[in-house]
Design goal:
By secondary structure, the chain is an alpha+beta fold. It has an 8-stranded antiparallel beta sheet with strand order 25-24-27-28-29-30-23-26, with no helix packed on it. Strands 1, 2, 3, 4, 5 and 6 form a 6-stranded antiparallel beta sheet that branches. Strand 12 and strand 13 form a beta hairpin.
Length: about 1950
């Protein structure tokens, strides 16, 4: 049976286990498992990272590990008992592994590879730690390395900062919050501000000399040179190179490398250089013959330099090739490096272009101990250390050095009887008094072993040589006495073969008679003559001689020449030897007692380096004199002691303090000295107040720490020697001394006085004085002394007094001292410390130090284990400091942060430390402490003020910027303390501020804090990784739910006071419920039920609740809060979680169920749209999907909620989206929605959405200008013109002629753009979104989309599929089945549709250029259609036209395109079928119009060549050869057909007329074609003429059979427009006639059909027309493809029926369109698109809806043909009549949609000032520019003429003259542009026609276009002005 485990609790999986057995738990190798039970070789448990899934697994798969169990039982937690670093590594690597893979997915390759290397490195280090074979130091180093790598990885991955102490993570519950903050801050500061090393070192490796002319060995001397002081600052390092220029000992790498050590930060300057002197070893003159001399000389070769500053930016070792320069004159060699640095180029020259010294250099930072650890490989090879000349900036006590440096400077020698100057070489020896040469004591530099003789280099022919050659004498200290150095001078002849000839010598002793070493200076030595080396056999002979001119000459000296001298410079660097005689005299005071006074006086003048060398001896001397002659020398000895103590305060010697401490503890023997020291110290203190000069007194007090150390140690020695005698005397003397101290400390001076500085000096050392007194006094006695001393200090002082800061520093040191650590002392000192702290914090002074003190106090209390005492002390601190601490935090956090980095970090430190102190105090308070603390407030107001302050501080603490974002540990601790405090304070809130004592402010602050607490980022556990979430839940639980329950409890306790929080708290509670935590939502959502119930009982409705819910919901969900679950929680009737029902379920049980359900339904629908909107906004690119969201939401706010302000906000969001996507037309339409809400009044408007405070007129003007700008960029210039006119009217009304002029010029420029600039016509596509996976606003709906420029069907399909990558493209146009609509998938159905312009009079007018017509063909379109051909009944194989029907689908949109979106939903779908006869009529009619257009374009030279016309003629005529029109005759003119279809008589007649018309047009077209055809196309033209005659014959038509109507020329209108035509038209078909006309009147037929009839095409035809009614434009004709004709009349190879290229084939056996039907717009003959579906050519199903095409009338005919309708009045100039019978659609009010913001606001174009209307402004306060949307927006007068009569007139129509007024069609006021449904009313606002809805079914006309003559307005009503006066009235 299964038994709970006792020991086997934790293990690691050794192998994979599939878990195929029943209840098996699948395991992977490396998983850690927690074991719950065991049974016969099986364990039951769970994987640590997935504790919810439990199962069984074999025990043999598990490696058990020791573990510690917490909370043993059902909720036990297992903690592995292993090194915390190992545990952290394991957990961290698991988390990194997941994120590492994500880096690869995000293509962050650099971090991916770096992290991979670090992870491998950590794993290797982990193995070393687990093995456990490392020493303690090695283990520490590895752990340090591991934690550094872990911190680096966490920082790179954005993970939390881990608080550590000695490499191990700390538990926040086991340390105080102040300690936790300090740990976090130190680690954070180390990360932000890496420490700057004070010591630096330079690593140098010489690799060789690159030269082509080497033949001698070389010596390279490297040293560091300070060019500012012109002195070397380091020894020399020597590298020897062989004849090939490489190091001689290549196998010994240490010979090539050195480390220049102890460089200070001040040495890393630009003027500090690494200098290399190169000496060659060979013949005297380079290049001389070998037979001249065999002696080798050291001769100068060259010099190279590099600046230290060049190495500062290089982190790794870098190679350098230095140029080598030689000296032009050898006499200048000693300063060649200085000449190169100062660029005195006349003194040096480049050795050779190929010569260079190759070196590697690298700067290392840190002390030598750290360098040895970090660069261990350097020191394992015994690398040479090149020391600094002199001591470093910091002298260490253990440092032992004894080096003497002698530099051979120069010499002055005579020629010695030679004709030329000598070649002088100096040989150096060190000899003892016995003449014995010392071995290995001469060294040319580091890297070389010592030798017994040194030879200088030789300067050629120079009697005044200057060497500057430095040698080092590392002589042991005990050998210095009696040694001297001898310098022998020899002449080196190049002609002599043998020994170098000596001619003189000099010497100098190293130690003087008094024991001091040769002083540091330049010495001029005498040169003694010597011509034989045997003279040196007896050194006593010359040691008696003077060695320099400062010596007194002796007897029996050898001959010497006073003109010859030799100069050397000596420098001693020794920690034991001294060159100062005064210090030696002081140490020998017993021998010369008469010199004591003089020596004591000179001690202060001795260099500190000399004093610290003999520190112990000097102190023994001083105390020896004090014990022996205290009365005589006591004061001087005391002053010397003070001088030495203060000397150790210097940073250079502060490392010697431990030496003095050791001396005091171990070597000091002055048992009676304490009496004199106390007496002398009191003597100085008593004279402080009256003294004029305080310098010496301040020096004494500065040394008070060590003076008391000597006093205490002396007393202890005395007690030990006498058994404790004189105790009372000692105690009294110390108390008397402190009375003097208290007296001078209590002295207050005005301003800053010397006494103030003296007080500050003493306070700095007082804490250590107290610590010393603890060694001889009782603890409480010292505490009383400290209390009295601190209490004697003045509490208040002026701001600039330095004593205040020093006082706090003294208190801080006291808190850190053992005096405060002791519990008994702490109770005595605490009150006085708190008193000083309170005063400083109240005055906001020295807050950094105050925070430091408070932190130290609380840290000590936390470490103290006595709970009772700690509680007492915490209460004392809480009573004293709580109020001032809260005020300080509030003031500090509300102050702006300083700009500097250091000040900003200091600011953060202060804030963080105070916060940590407050949290520590609150954490230490128990329930009783809270009750006691709150009960001490005497009044309710005091308690309320405290609670409000505390709640405000808590709100600050949970701000996101309170702590760095990676301080999650600190944030969680803060949250835990806050929630604990809230639980305690909630009882006080109920007790003191409820019922009759209710206070709204406190309760509101409480609720606000609770909601902010719930929403803080560190508590959103859903965003955490699983391991982190598990840790937080185990440690703290879900604190959000705890606070939520507390909110509900507090809310329920309010009872009748709930009304005070409605609707104020609705937004807050709503924000809390949006947190994605199920339990929290279930707890808080019932509060809304209470709010609705309370509001209903108070006001009878809950409109306030509704308004606040909607407003807040929008802002919160736009920020990313809320989800589908939250929506369901509101709406779903079924309980979702636990015992809490949904809100709707609760509401349904109330009496106000109906209104409540309505509210919840509205809110739910709003949430649906907000969620869709938010999902859309997550997409980076602006496309249809994320445009649809804001459009849908905008409509919802406008139509359902009537929220004007939200409506306008989303208008601007949509505008910004369009602007960003460069959808300028849509952006203009969007902004027009806001423009329509405004009127031309002076009503003031408040600042809103970036608009300034301005009048309504000014804002509307600004919007107009912005809209015009966007329409202009979108090339909708016709819309711009309407808006420009409206603005011009306003400017004219206000007599603003300057702006009026600009507006008129702008209007003129817009006309130019219309005529001169090219506009692309977009394609339109119908797209259906089917399936439940689409967003709410797209789901199971169909739209028509306006395509982008140059976008065709295939590109649009690809774009849609990329926007919806999971969608499936449907391959047919049939309506979707129900299964598709309900499928959990996405289906797209896309095909092209054709626009159907309605009511556009301009399209019916002849002579209107295509540039103008093209705009109206694709703008303001409500209807779109597509055709599907099919065969009904039996298909006639010989003539398929008999059964060819067309299914025409018309889509009516909810809003016209273009509009506020590029796509709109289909509002209505109409489907009709066209009979074969109607189809044939439409095909021929469209082809006729296409032919007319091409002929006109050819005549007016609108095309570059006649190729389009040629191809069109060929397509029609050539098809006629194979059948053509004859097939239509056969199909529809047969007697059987006429008999069977008597109702089609008119249609057959119409078809016959069109066929005759086509034949005539072809005849005329051939005539035009003959005129313009090129020579190479003449054969084709002749062929076409012949085929035309055959076609005409096949139809049985003769020229005389053509009716008069048909025989007339098709070109019957002249230049420009019908009203201006006066030229008669020729009566016969002649190319000359029409050509004359067309020179004045361009023929511009409206485009009608994209596809021509198959009956008019042939095998050779390139037309792509079909029966869908979409015709080709000329460019499409130019790029024709073979037609997929279904007619057998076309050709034997013709295809199937006419198939619409834009519509997919249906399931009715209709074939798919051929790829050859695709069209191109890239050809140069670009013309407006010809569309079948225009207002000019409506469906032929309705005979009354037919538009009669242009009729050609014979001018000789007196009356029209009987079947022709009469022409409209004013329709043409030569009897050309046009009449539209098409019914117009009903009036529609387009509904606008919206989008979110991104780019420029419309206020960018704001005018500098507004205009003032003459009419009075509306009364009322400033508003947002949002008026009621319920008012009508249609003005009574919109600036357009009323409709004229439409009566017919007889033919022919006379040509009007200029005197006769032109009568135009009546115009109609367009209905408003609105976001309402079409039948909704609008406010009276003038609206441009271009923005209007479709005209009604019986329109009376359209507004005049700019090209119409003004005379047309004579019969129209005058336009109404918005102002009373006009220019004409003046």
């Amino acid at each position: 049976m299964w038994v709970p485990t006792e020991q086997e609790k934790y293990g690691v999986v050794l192998a994979n286990f599939r878990g195929l057995v029943q209840y098996g738990l699948p395991l992977e190798i490396g998983d850690t498992v927690q074991i719950l039970e065991k049974c016969e070789g099986w364990y039951r448990g769970f994987i640590i990272k997935n504790p919810t899934t439990k199962g069984i697994f074999p025990s043999c798969y598990i490696h058990l590990k020791n573990a510690h169990i917490k909370n043993k039982g059902q909720f036990e937690t297992v903690i592995p008992m292993e090194d915390s670093v190992i545990t952290e590594m394991t957990v961290t690597l698991r988390d990194w592994g997941i994120m590492w893979k994500q880096l690869y997915v995000r293509n962050e390759g650099d971090l991916f590879h770096r992290l991979w290397h670090v992870m491998n490195e950590i794993l290797e280090l982990r193995q070393q730690v687990l093995v456990g074979h490392l020493t303690h130091d090695s283990m520490s180093n590895i752990k340090q390395h591991i934690t550094a790598r872990l911190d680096w990885g966490n920082e790179q991955l954005g993970l939390d900062l881990v608080p550590r102490r000695e490499f191990s993570m700390v538990d926040p519950d086991e340390i105080s919050v102040t300690e936790l903050y300090q740990l976090m801050e130190r680690r954070h500061r180390r990360k932000e501000l890496p420490g700057q090393a004070s010591m630096h070192h330079l690593f140098v490796q010489v690799k060789g000399l690159m030269s082509a002319s080497l033949g001698e060995e070389l010596e390279v001397f490297l040293f560091i040179y300070d060019s500012r002081d012109s002195r070397p600052i380091s020894e020399r390092f020597v590298v020897r190179l062989n004849k090939q220029g490489v190091p001689s000992a290549l196998e010994k790498a240490e010979r090539q490398c050195t480390l220049f050590v102890d460089l200070g930060s001040s040495d890393l300057r630009k003027d500090v250089y690494v200098v290399a002197h190169i000496i060659r070893i060979g013949r005297m003159v380079a290049g001389e013959k070998k037979s001249v001399s065999n002696v080798q000389y050291r001769r100068p070769f060259g010099c190279a330099i590099i600046s230290i500053a060049d190495l500062l930016t290089v982190d790794s070792k870098d190679d350098h090739l230095l140029k080598v320069y030689s000296c032009n004159m050898e006499t200048e060699w000693y300063q060649i490096h200085d000449s190169i640095i100062r660029k005195v180029s006349s003194r040096y020259s480049l050795v050779g272009s190929n010569t260079g010294l190759s070196m590697s250099l690298q700067l290392l930072h840190g002390d030598m101990e750290q360098i040895r650890k970090d660069y261990m490989r350097l020191f394992t090879r015994n690398i040479s250390i090149t020391k600094r000349l002199g001591f470093s900036d910091i002298i260490m006590p253990g440092e032992i050095r004894n080096d003497l440096y002698i530099t051979l400077e120069k010499g002055e020698f005579e020629k010695g009887g030679k004709s030329v100057a000598r070649n002088v070489e100096v040989s150096v020896h060190v000899l003892g008094a016995d003449g014995q040469i010392q071995k290995d004591v001469l060294c040319a530099g580091s890297g070389e072993l010592g030798v017994e003789q040194h030879h200088s280099f030789v300067l050629y022919h120079s009697n005044s040589p200057r060497w500057s050659d430095q040698i080092k004498l590392p002589i042991p200290m005990d050998l210095f006495r009696g040694l001297h150095v001898r310098f022998e001078f020899r002449h080196c002849s190049t002609k002599e073969k043998g020994e170098k000839k000596i001619f003189g010598f000099s010497f100098v002793p190293l130690m003087q008679e008094n024991g001091s070493i040769l002083p540091d200076r330049t010495h001029e030595l005498l040169v003694h003559k010597c011509e034989d080396a045997t003279y040196f056999q007896d050194v006593a002979r010359y040691l008696k001689l003077p060695y320099s001119k400062t010596n007194t000459p002796g007897n029996n000296q050898p001959a010497r020449n006073s003109k010859e001298s030799f100069w050397i410079t000596s420098f001693l660097c020794s920690t034991k030897l001294t060159q100062n005689g005064d210090i030696l005299d002081l140490l020998k005071w017993r021998t010369h007692p008469e010199k004591i006074a003089d020596c004591l006086s000179k001690l202060k003048d001795i260099d500190g380096t000399e004093i610290v060398k003999f520190l112990q001896d000097t102190l023994d001397t001083l105390f020896g004199i004090l014990d022996q002659s205290a009365q005589r020398y006591g004061l001087k000895v005391f002053d010397c002691l003070v001088h030495i103590i203060n000397l150790l305060q210097d940073s250079k010697f502060q490392q010697f303090k431990p030496v003095m401490d050791t001396y005091i503890e171990s070597h000091f023997a002055g048992a009676l000295s304490y009496r004199e020291l106390i007496k002398l110290l009191k003597w100085y203190i008593d004279r402080i107040i009256d003294a004029e000069h305080h310098e010496q007194i301040q020096q004494v007090l500065k040394a008070a720490e060590y003076i008391f150390k000597y006093i205490v140690q002396s007393r202890r020695l005395y007690v030990g020697a006498t058994g404790g005698q004189g105790e009372e005397e000692f105690r009294c003397s110390v108390h008397e001394l402190f009375k003097s101290v208290h007296l001078f400390l209590s002295h207050q001076s005005k301003g800053v006085s010397p006494i103030t500085h003296t007080q500050a000096v003493f306070l700095r050392s007082f804490p250590t004085v107290c610590c010393e007194l603890l060694k001889v006094f009782l603890v409480r006695e010292v505490a009383v002394l400290a209390h009295d001393t601190l209490g004697s200090l003045p509490v208040m002082a002026h701001t600039d007094c330095p004593l205040q800061a020093v006082k706090l520093q003294c208190i801080a040191k006291t808190v850190e001292s053992p005096l405060y650590t002791n519990q008994e002392c702490r109770c005595v000192v605490l009150p006085v410390i708190l008193r000083h702290l309170q005063v400083h914090m109240q005055e906001q002074r020295d807050l950094v130090m105050c925070a430091h003190i408070l932190t130290g106090m609380l840290s000590v209390i936390t470490k103290d284990g006595t709970e009772c005492v700690a509680s007492e002390e915490v209460n004392i601190i809480m009573d004293s400091m709580s109020g001032v601490l809260l005020r300080t935090i509030l003031e500090v956090t509300n102050c702006p942060q300083p700009a500097g980095t250091a000040l900003r970090l200091q600011y953060q430190d202060v804030t963080g430390e105070f916060v940590a102190c407050l949290l520590t105090l609150l954490r230490l308070l128990s329930d009783k402490d809270y009750q006691r603390f709150l009960s001490r407030f005497s009044s309710k107001d005091e308690l309320m003020a405290f609670l409000l302050q505390l709640f405000t501080v808590f709100e600050i603490l949970i701000r996101p910027d309170m702590f760095p974002k990676d301080w999650t540990v600190m944030q969680l601790v803060t949250s835990n303390v806050i929630i604990t405090s809230l639980l305690y304070l909630s009882d006080a809130l109920k007790k003191n501020f409820l019922n009759e004592k209710f206070d709204f402010k406190v309760w509101e602050s409480y609720f606000y804090l609770a909601v902010v607490f719930i929403n803080q980022q560190c508590l959103q556990l859903e965003k955490f990784p699983p391991s982190k979430r598990k840790k937080v839940l185990e440690k703290y639980g879900d604190m959000r739910v705890m606070v939520g329950c507390e909110i509900l409890s507090m809310w329920q306790s309010l009872e009748e006071h709930k009304l005070n929080f409605i609707p104020v708290m609705i937004g807050l509670f709503l924000e809390a419920t949006l947190v994605p935590q199920a339990d929290l939502r279930n707890v808080l959502i019932p509060i809304f039920h209470d709010m609705m119930d309370c509001e209903l009982s108070r006001s009878g409705n809950f409109k306030q609740v509704e308004a606040k819910l909607i407003d807040k919901l929008d802002s919160l969900m736009s920020e990313g809060k809320g989800d589908e679950t939250y929506k369901e929680l509101f709406n779903n009737i079924i309980p979702l979680f636990g015992p809490y029902p949904s809100l709707l379920k609760k509401i349904e049980s109330e009496t106000w169920r109906e209104s409540g359900v309505s509210l919840i339904t509205t809110v739910t629908r709003l949430m649906e749209r907000l969620l869709d909107y938010r999902d859309c906004m997550k997409i980076g690119d602006v496309d249809g999907k994320n445009i649809g969201g804001p459009v849908n939401l905008l409509n919802f706010y406008k139509t359902e909620l009537n929220k004007e302000e939200m409506y306008i906000r989303y208008i601007h969001k949509l505008y910004d989206l369009h602007f960003k996507a460069q959808n300028y037309t849509e952006a203009a339409y969007t902004l027009l929605l806001y423009d329509e809400l405004l009127e031309w009044t002076e009503r003031p408007l408040r600042e809103f959405l970036g608009y300034p405070l301005q009048s309504e007129w000014q804002r509307k003007e600004c919007l107009h200008l912005t809209i015009i700008h966007n329409f202009d960029r979108g090339k909708c210039w016709e819309n711009c013109i309407i808006l420009c006119r409206e603005l011009a009217n306003q400017y004219e009304a206000y007599y603003d002629y300057r702006n009026l002029s600009k507006m008129r010029m702008m209007e003129a420029s817009l006309y130019d753009k219309i005529m001169n600039q090219q506009r692309l016509e977009p394609e339109f596509f119908r797209i259906g979104f089917y399936g439940k996976k689409f967003p709410f606003f797209l789901r199971n709906k169909e739209f028509v989309c306006r395509g982008n420029d140059y976008e065709r069907l295939e590109a649009f399909q690809q774009r849609m599929l990329s926007e919806f990558p999971h969608a499936i493209a449907m391959q047919h146009a049939n309506p979707p089945e129900q299964t598709i609509l309900q499928a959990e998938a996405q289906y797209l159905q896309i095909y092209a549709v054709s626009p159907v312009p309605e009511g556009q009079d301009v399209l019916q007018r002849d002579g209107v250029p295509n540039n103008i017509k093209s705009f109206y063909k694709v703008n303001h379109i409500w209807k779109f259609r597509y055709d599907r051909p099919f065969h009904k009944g039996t298909k006639d194989k010989e003539n398929e036209f008999k059964s060819l029907w067309v299914e025409r689908t018309t889509l009516t949109l909810a809003q016209s395109l273009p509009g506020i979106s590029r796509w709109f939903e289909v509002d209505k779908r109409d489907l009709v079928e066209m009979s074969p006869l109607e189809n044939a009529t439409e095909v021929i009619e469209n082809k006729n119009l296409q032919l007319r257009t091409l002929i006109a374009q050819c005549q007016t030279r609108q095309m570059q060549n006649s190729n389009p016309l040629t191809m069109c003629l060929n397509g029609v005529i050539d098809a006629a050869v194979n059948g053509g029109l004859a097939r239509y005759q056969e199909a529809f003119f047969a007697k059987d057909y006429i008999a069977n279809h008597p109702q089609d008589g008119d249609k057959i007649t119409r078809l016959r007329e069109l066929m005759f018309e086509q034949a005539h047009i072809l005849e005329y077209g051939l005539a035009v074609h003959e005129k313009y055809v090129s020579l190479d196309m003449r054969p084709l033209h002749k062929k076409l003429v012949d085929q035309f005659h055959m076609m005409r014959s096949s139809l049985g038509l003769q020229p005389q059979e053509f009716p008069a109507l048909v025989r007339a020329s098709p070109m019957h209108f002249v230049s420009g427009s019908p009203r201006s035509c006066r030229t008669p038209v020729p009566s016969a078909i002649s190319p000359d006639g029409p050509r004359m006309v067309m020179r004045r009147s361009p023929l511009t037929y409206p485009a009608v059909n994209r596809y021509s009839s198959s009956s008019l095409s042939s095998q050779a035809s390139n037309e792509v027309s079909n029966i869908t009614g979409q015709s080709e434009s000329s460019d499409e004709v130019f790029n024709m493809q073979p037609s997929p004709s279904t007619s057998s009349l076309s050709s034997n190879q013709s295809g199937s029926t006419h198939v619409n290229n834009s519509a997919p084939a249906s399931n009715r056996a209709s074939p798919l369109p051929s790829d050859k039907q695709k069209h191109s717009r890239d050809n140069l003959c670009l013309s407006p698109r010809d569309r079948l579906c225009t207002g000019l050519f409506p469906s032929t199903l309705d005979p009354t809806a037919r538009t009669v095409p242009l009729q050609i009338v014979d001018p000789t005919s007196s009356r029209p043909e009987p079947n022709l309708p009469t022409l409209e009045k004013g329709a043409g100039s030569l009897g050309i009549g046009m009449r539209s019978y098409s019914p117009m659609p009903t009036n529609k009010s387009p509904q606008k949609t919206s989008m979110p913001p991104l780019t420029p606001s419309p206020i960018d174009c704001l005018p500098p000032g507004g205009l003032v209307l003459n009419s009075p402004a509306r009364s009322g306060s400033c508003s947002s520019g949002i008026s009621s949307l319920s008012r009508c927006s249609v003005s009574e007068t919109c600036g357009m003429d009323p409709a004229l009569s439409d009566s017919p007139v007889p033919l022919p129509v006379p040509v009007p003259t200029l005197e006769e007024p032109m009568v135009r069609r009546g115009s109609k006021t367009p209905p408003p542009y609105s976001v309402y449904e079409r039948n909704n009313l609008r406010r009276a606002t003038p609206l441009p026609h271009s923005l209007s809805v479709p005209p009604s079914a019986d329109p009376s006309g359209l507004p005049p276009k700019p090209h119409l003559n003004r005379s047309h307005r004579l019969h129209s009503e005058p336009r109404q002005r918005t102002v009373p006066r006009k220019v004409s009235q003046l």
